[in-house]
């Protein structure tokens, strides 16, 4: 089985004035194409660090990360940025939408990093899929929280990434919106993409193939669950 | 979606910071443009003023020349009446008169009541060697003063008996002063006055009374010239005077002295020199004004430019700090560091460009409405400097970009992981 994301024995420490914090301790995991993996754990257990390291944004001190078979930290910064733009999509709890752009423009921002064929049509297709067509010309301040997260998800999927990294994407959402977002992510995985989501939302387990438990920077267990199915996914 | 759209939309959101950056460039460019416009206006005004002065001077000289001509015409001719046997070739070549004529001629002429002659000065002139001064050559002139005419006051007071008037060359070589005594041909004379240097034979001339001169030169009752001054005649010619004089004194020769021409030329020369001095003084004054303006500009411009650059740098730093989360997500989405830097540099360059164009307009208007340009001499078209506009349009964005370079580089080097981890 091919692996879109392969993490092997990575370690990461943060040096702070109050002392060194061991954020990751020998974490190893993999995510295959079409697989939706959830990493759960309490706040401060290293979930976000794991995600940033997996996305080529935070170099580990030890261990290796392979994204689509390539080590992003062995690449030059420009090539690493290109790998991120072409292969990885990010979703964050805080959305990080750009406030002065409309929803449509926010979705199209990844085209600044990687040219996409017919970018407007692609963005409009995503907005329609996420039920945001009516909000396309609105700035993000005019959106509800759920709409913002769906817009952020649409942006993450704009460049047709093969690996989606989601950091607490339902953290600020009500149950209804959480369910909608999780369903969209699961649908994306069913379409063949690899998904690694870190969360402490236990509802995520209902949509994932596997759930990893994290504690104090390490993985403590892995659970296999029934596949949520691969039919009816978003076209990639 | 393009970087340009990203930049312009961000400016629309945070327009206050952008306007402040534009304003700082505007002020710097406006100061530069206004100063250079004022200098250009000053230069044009200087050219205009000097050209006007030159034209005025030439007109004044023409007027003065005309006035002198009229004055000279009113004064009449200065004529010299020479004895019948005098060779004019000798007179013109050597400047001396060797023949003589009766002194009575002057009296006869004066008593004839000619309306064309106003003043008559009979004289006896002879070049001699001064035995008491090592045979040095001098010109001895005996003057009778003016022969009384029926009208007018005498023009010249005769040299008193026993006195002498000496030329400047004699005064200097013998260290004489008024009151000193000289001995000439065995007679003592008191120095009555000393003439200033004339650069003519007058400098080696001694004037004494006519009677004494006739005795000393053995020419009693003889003279060798009559100077006729202010001779008036119709049509500015001397033919009529010659006819009048010839009728009374057969054989004498009447010539016009060069004094009129010389006087006119000297007057014109003095006027020209005075005008030239005035023009030069104006030129120096204008140059000093320009230097003052340049000195003012020399310290004001760097100060304003530096202030604008610091201000733009501060605004860029604030903008970069405000956009930290945005930088984090853009980096996470795969934008390269140079693209992040380009966003900030292009924003600064745009502020520089807008500030340069508007600043040029403002500075040009201020320059036009101030000082000498307000006086209305040079027009806007003459002062418009396309080269300067081109320069500021290129330089202001570059300076603004350089001022924003450090914040842009810092923004481009932001660690996206640190930004995203901290929310």
Strand percent estimate of chain A: 25-35%
- Based on CA atoms alone, the radius of gyration of chain B comes out at 44 Å
**Number of helix segments of chain B?**
15
- Specify the CATH architecture of the domain at 5-96 and 162-224 in chain A: 3-Layer(aba) Sandwich
**CATH homologous superfamily identity of the domain at 5-96 and 162-224 in chain A:** P-loop containing nucleotide triphosphate hydrolases
Largest interface: A-B, 35 and 28 residues
Overall shape of chain A: it is globular
Approximate strand percentage of chain B: 5-15%
Helix content of chain A: 25-40%
- What is the number of strand segments of chain A? 9
Strand neighbour order, sheet with most strands of chain B: 6-7-5-8-4-3-10-1-11
Keywords:
heterodimer, A: about 240 residues, alpha/beta, Rossmann fold, six-stranded mixed beta sheet, three-stranded antiparallel beta sheet, 9 strands, globular, B: about 425 residues, alpha+beta, nine-stranded mixed beta sheet, two-stranded antiparallel ribbon, 11 strands, about 60% helix, rod-shaped
Describe the structure.
- The complex is a heterodimer of chains A (236) and B (423).
- Chain A has 236 residues and is of the alpha/beta class.
- Chain A has a domain at 5-96 and 162-224: Rossmann fold (3-Layer(aba) Sandwich).
- Chain A contains six helices and nine strands.
- In chain A, the strands form two sheets. A six-stranded mixed sheet of chain A has the order 5-6-7-3-8-9. Chain A has a three-stranded antiparallel sheet with strand order 2-1-4, covered by helices on one side.
- In chain A, a hairpin with a 2-residue loop joins strand 1 (5-16) and strand 2.
- Chain A is globular, with a radius of gyration of 17 Å.
- The two termini of chain A are 20 Å apart.
- Chain B has 423 residues and is an alpha+beta fold.
- In chain B, strands 6-7-5-8-4-3-10-1-11 form a nine-stranded mixed sheet.
- In chain B, helix 10 packs across helix 13.
- Chain B is rod-shaped, with a radius of gyration of 44 Å.
- The chains are: A alpha/beta (236), B alpha+beta (423).
- The A-B interface holds A 48-49, 52, 55, 57-58, 77-78, 81-82, 84-86, 88, 90, 92-94, 96, 98-101, 105, 108-114, 119, 155, 159, 167 and B 1-3, 5-6, 9-10, 12-14, 325-326, 328-337, 339, 416-417, 420-421, 423.
């Amino acid at each position: 089985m091919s692996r879109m994301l392969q993490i092997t024995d990575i370690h990461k420490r943060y040096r702070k004035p109050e002392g060194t914090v061991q954020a990751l301790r020998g974490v190893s995991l993999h995510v295959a194409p079409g697989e939706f993996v959830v990493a759960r754990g309490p706040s401060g257990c290293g979930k976000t660090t794991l995600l940033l390291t997996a996305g080529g944004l935070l170099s580990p001190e030890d261990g290796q990360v392979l994204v689509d078979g390539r080590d992003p930290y062995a690449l030059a910064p420009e090539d690493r940025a290109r790998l991120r733009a072409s292969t990885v999509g990010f979703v964050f709890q805080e959305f990080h939408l750009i406030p002065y752009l409309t929803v449509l423009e926010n979705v199209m921002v990844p085209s600044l990093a990687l040219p996409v064929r017919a970018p407007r049509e692609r963005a409009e297709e995503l907005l329609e899929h996420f039920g945001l067509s009516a909000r396309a010309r609105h700035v993000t301040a005019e959106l509800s929280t759920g709409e913002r997260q769906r817009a952020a998800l649409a942006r993450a999927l704009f460049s047709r990434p093969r690996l989606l990294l989601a950091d607490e994407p339902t953290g600020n959402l009500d149950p209804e919106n959480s369910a909608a977002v999780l369903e969209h992510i699961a649908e994306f995985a069913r379409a063949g993409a690899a998904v690694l989501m870190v969360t402490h939302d236990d509802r995520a387990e209902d949509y994932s193939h596997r759930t990893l438990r994290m504690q104090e920077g390490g993985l403590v267990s892995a659970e296999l669950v029934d596949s949520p199915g691969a039919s009816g996914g978003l076209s990639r | 979606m393009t970087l340009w759209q990203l930049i312009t939309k961000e400016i629309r959101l945070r327009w206050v910071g952008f306007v402040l950056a534009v304003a700082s460039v505007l002020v710097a460019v406006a100061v530069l443009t206004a100063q250079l416009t004022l200098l250009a206006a000053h230069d044009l005004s200087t050219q205009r003023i000097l050209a006007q002065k030159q034209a005025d001077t030439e007109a004044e000289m023409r007027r003065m020349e005309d006035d002198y001509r009229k004055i000279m015409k009113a004064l009449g001719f200065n004529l010299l009446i020479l004895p019948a046997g005098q060779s004019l070739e000798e007179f013109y070549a050597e400047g001396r008169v060797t023949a003589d004529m009766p002194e009575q001629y002057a009296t006869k002429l004066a008593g004839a009541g000619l309306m064309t002659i106003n003043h008559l000065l009979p004289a006896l002139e002879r070049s001699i060697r001064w035995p008491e001064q090592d045979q040095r050559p001098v010109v001895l002139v005996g003057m009778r003063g003016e022969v009384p005419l029926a009208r007018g006051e005498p023009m010249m007071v005769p040299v008193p008996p026993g006195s002498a008037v000496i030329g400047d060359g004699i005064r200097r070589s013998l260290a004489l002063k008024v009151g000193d005594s000289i001995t000439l041909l065995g007679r003592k004379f008191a120095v009555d006055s000393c003439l200033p240097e004339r650069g003519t034979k007058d400098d080696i001339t001694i004037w004494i009374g006519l009677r004494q001169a006739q005795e000393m030169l053995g020419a009693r009752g003889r003279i060798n010239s009559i100077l006729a001054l202010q001779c008036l005649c119709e049509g500015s010619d001397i033919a009529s005077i010659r006819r009048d004089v010839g009728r009374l004194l057969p054989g004498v020769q009447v010539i016009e002295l060069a004094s009129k021409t010389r006087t006119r030329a000297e007057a014109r020369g003095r006027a020209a020199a005075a005008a030239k001095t005035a023009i030069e003084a104006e030129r120096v004054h204008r140059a000093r004004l320009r230097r003052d303006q340049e000195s003012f500009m020399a310290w004001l411009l760097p100060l304003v430019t530096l202030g604008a650059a610091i201000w733009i740098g501060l605004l860029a730093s604030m903008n970069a700090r405000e956009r930290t989360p945005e930088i984090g997500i853009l980096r996470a989405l795969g934008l390269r560091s140079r693209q992040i830097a380009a966003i900030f540099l292009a924003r600064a360059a745009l502020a520089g460009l807008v500030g340069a164009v508007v600043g040029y307009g403002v500075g040009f208007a201020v320059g036009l409405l101030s000082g000498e340009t307000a006086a209305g001499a040079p027009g806007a078209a003459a002062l418009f400097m396309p080269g300067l506009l081109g320069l500021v349009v290129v330089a202001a964005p570059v300076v603004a970009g350089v001022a924003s370079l450090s914040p842009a580089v810092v923004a481009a080097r932001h660690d996206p992981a640190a930004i995203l981890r901290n929310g």
